[in-house]
Design a protein that fits this description.
It contains three helices and 42 strands. The strands form four sheets. It has a 24-stranded antiparallel beta barrel. Strands 1, 3, 6, 7, 8, 9, 12, 13 and 14 form a nine-stranded mixed β-sheet that branches. The chain is globular.
Length: about 750
């Protein structure tokens, strides 16, 4: 096992065997040579967005009914009929849908009323638009029977920007026979090319519906089950539009904020208050280019991170949660990979680490341009000096060239300049990365992605290298893939993230997708295996660790509940200082086996459960981890959640020790409607004896304009002296689009 080359050959042989095993007759089909035609009708009168579809124009519009079933079995008859029509006027594209349900209001499944709701656990109707007919890109507008809004951008059906926000509106009506949904999508919120005189515009369009009660997903036009409605190579042609001439539009979003902080550290107590003004400006220069400006940026409304107990050898990836950085984040190299990320925006606006205190962002700008041939992006942010960190400038540049049908290759440069600070006793320092990456889709099923990145840090004059490679195929019958990640000891992206240094990781594997025709209560059963093998980057013969992830039971039931049983034979080589949760592991070789059972009940039900038990060996001792979750949501307007994690470590360490940890989280959400909501959670971790509250109220008083009230409270009991910190924030934002 310690020899890399023979084991590497074994991995390749295993990958090829799995590929040949799964390469069989499939139900995938290619896009039609001539796409179906959808015609939009010009409205003669005014359309009121109320979810009723009772204007006479709706009765005259073309009706689309020929949907195709994707889930739970591809093709054939479906239970839930859907009718869709399209209207337009000088300002908006209107989408009207009737989603039939034999149980009417009683059949509706909606978890809660939050914006950007969770896909897969709600009744949803959604529409995808490709306004430039690129076949590689779409924007999606989605709603539930209660009128929640979700919007996103998708690229090549592989990279999704869930945090893209557009100005649009939707209203719904629930009836005894189903529900209606009525969308108004302003043409100003959609970027399209100017149409030449005498020509008619052609957009790509798809519709889809998820009827959650029976987990039946239908789509128009037909798209294979192994893909998604975002695969725009299968899209219909939308024609009949008379579009206003595309024009530069400007969106401004100023804010005002009041913040009060109180800190008690032992017998010392301090408080301060602050009034802040700032905002963002978005200028859509043309249908392809957008310029964003931000001033005195604030992220008070962003979701906070939850506590995590890390028992592994890897760095924890905390996702970005701040809206300014989330939007268009998919354009940067490494955005679709959590192992090697040359540009990771969480390095900006914090005092050093991802969990540090915020540092003020004075100003910043971002430029993005996309067309059918290429994408270009640039970013500059200036971070103010604080008591703990010097002022800093962050810069990133990106160029991506498209070629063929769905392929691209790109380069990216990042540069961070930390300024000299006499007060902090630090010198000026620079950090730069240069990255090359690409995406290849040789056919509908296979895709290949790659990234190689080099860094230079002038503080210690080091050069480093890192990267990732992935090749995989996804079909209705199987998935097979290979991923390799590598990071040298000296790779240091000060604007990025890596999962570990001095490592090469290979992970081949796959699973078979079985959809039993005669067992109606099983939607799919995906047995399979993955190998994870790690060795040193600078000394490939030095083995680090390996495990085989075997999951013979991996079942999705017809109501989308889930059951898994997995076993993990594991090999470890510890030759460095390693102390998970403070328990020092002796150097040496270890072999042990762990087992795991995961389950979740129907998450769309009024009461649902999740659970996991993981048990077995752990280095020179034993470990048991139990996780459980309870969600009670009698109506979509109210939900209570309780989550619990228990760790028991026995006879672990140089001198065998015992450790138990308890991490408890209680959360709630209340909503008057999708625009007025109150959420809260309390979390306590016995490991560091830290408890904290987060309470947030929000009112969307007009589209994308909000009033936020936020309360945070943190207390640490394990210190010699009491430490507590309370924070209250009131924030008002206003969005205007010209």
């Amino acid at each position: 096992m310690a020899k890399f080359i023979p084991y590497h050959r074994l991995l390749i042989m295993q990958f090829l065997c799995v590929s040949n095993l799964f390469a069989q007759e499939d139900q995938n089909f290619s896009p039609p040579e001539k796409a179906p035609l959808v015609v939009a009708t010009k409205a003669a009168g005014q359309i009121k967005i109320d979810g009723k579809l009772n204007e006479s124009d709706w009765q005259k519009a073309e009706v689309i009914t020929s949907f195709f079933k994707m889930e739970p079995r591809q093709g054939g008859n479906y239970l839930y009929d859907t009718k869709v029509s399209l209207l337009y006027d000088e300002k908006n594209l209107y989408v009207g849908a009737f989603c039939k349900d034999s149980l009417g209001r009683k059949g509706v499944r909606v978890q809660d009323l939050r914006r950007d709701f969770k896909w897969g656990e709600n009744d949803i109707f959604f529409v995808q638009l490709d306004p430039q007919n690129l076949k590689q890109y779409c924007v999606s507008f989605q709603t539930t029977p209660y009128g929640n809004q979700r919007d996103l951008q998708n690229f090549n059906d592989s990279n999704t920007d869930n945090d893209w926000n557009a100005l649009w509106s939707v209203r719904t009506q629930r009836t005894d026979s189903g529900y209606y949904a009525e969308f108004a999508i302003p043409f100003k919120s959609i970027r399209y090319d100017e149409v030449q005189d005498g020509q008619s515009p052609t957009w790509g369009i798809t519709f889809s519906r998820l009827a959650r009660r029976d987990y039946e997903q239908t789509v128009f036009p037909a798209i294979p089950q192994s893909f998604s409605p975002y695969r725009m190579t299968y899209a219909a042609r939308l024609e009949g539009l008379e579009l206003p001439e595309p024009s530069a539009n400007v969106r401004i979003e100023p804010y005002t904020l009041y913040q009060y902080d109180q800190i008690q550290d032992g017998n010392n107590q301090s408080s301060n208050s602050e009034l802040k003004l700032g905002g963002d400006v978005k200028w859509a220069i043309n249908s392809h280019s957008v310029l964003d400006l931000t001033f005195n940026t604030d992220f008070a409304q962003a979701d906070v991170d939850r506590a995590v107990n890390n028992l592994e050898r890897f760095n924890i990836f905390f996702p970005e949660r701040r809206q300014f950085f989330l939007e268009n984040s998919g354009i940067w190299a490494g955005a679709n990979n959590n192992a090697v990320v040359p540009f990771f925006s969480r390095a900006i606006g914090l005092n050093g680490s991802f969990n540090a205190e915020p540092a003020r962002i004075d100003a910043g700008t971002r430029y993005t341009m996309r067309n059918e041939k290429r994408s270009i992006a640039g970013l500059y942010i200036h971070q103010a000096e604080t008591k703990k960190s010097p002022g800093a400038s962050f810069m990133a540049g990106r160029y991506l060239q498209n070629y063929g049908n769905e392929n691209n290759i790109g380069v990216m440069v990042t540069h961070r300049l930390d300024q000299q600070s006499t007060e902090l006793g630090v010198q000026q320092s620079n950090n730069t990365t240069v990255s090359l990456d690409g995406f290849i889709r040789p056919n509908d099923e296979w895709e290949v992605s790659y990234l190689i990145s080099g860094s230079r840090d002038n503080s210690n004059d080091t050069l480093g290298i890192a990267g990732t490679f992935f090749a995989g195929a996804n079909s209705n019958k199987y998935y097979v893939g290979w991923r390799t990640n590598f990071v040298s000891e000296d790779y240091n992206p000060d604007m990025g993230f890596v999962f570990q240094k001095n490592v090469i990781n290979h992970s081949p594997g796959g699973y078979y997708i079985w959809r039993p025709k005669n067992i109606s209560w099983i939607r799919r059963w995906d047995p399979g295996a993955f190998i994870n093998y790690y060795h040193d980057f600078d000394s490939p013969d030095n083995f680090q660790q390996a495990n085989i992830y075997l999951f013979p039971v991996y079942i999705y039931f017809i109501d989308n509940s889930f059951l898994q049983y997995a076993i993990f034979p594991t090999w470890q080589n510890i030759n460095f200082s390693f102390a998970p949760l403070g328990l020092s592991i002796p150097e040496g070789d270890y072999y042990y086996t762990r087992q795991q059972v995961n389950f979740r009940t129907n998450q769309s039900a009024k009461v649902s459960l999740t659970g996991s038990i993981n048990w077995g060996g752990f280095y020179n001792g034993q470990r048991t981890t139990i996780e459980g979750g309870l969600r009670i949501a009698p109506i979509p307007h109210a939900a209570l959640t309780v989550d619990y994690e228990y760790n028991k470590l026995t006879d672990i360490g140089e001198t065998p020790q015992q450790l138990e940890t308890h991490l408890t989280t209680i959360g709630s959400r209340f909503a008057l409607n999708p625009r007025v909501q109150l959420s809260a959670f309390y979390q306590y971790n016995t490991f560091d004896e830290r408890g904290r509250w987060n309470v947030r109220a929000s009112w969307e008083y007009q589209p994308l304009s909000f009033l936020y009230l936020v309360f945070n409270d943190t207390q640490i009991d394990g210190l010699d002296d009491l430490f507590s910190e309370q924070q209250f924030i009131g924030k008002l934002t206003f969005l205007k689009q010209f």
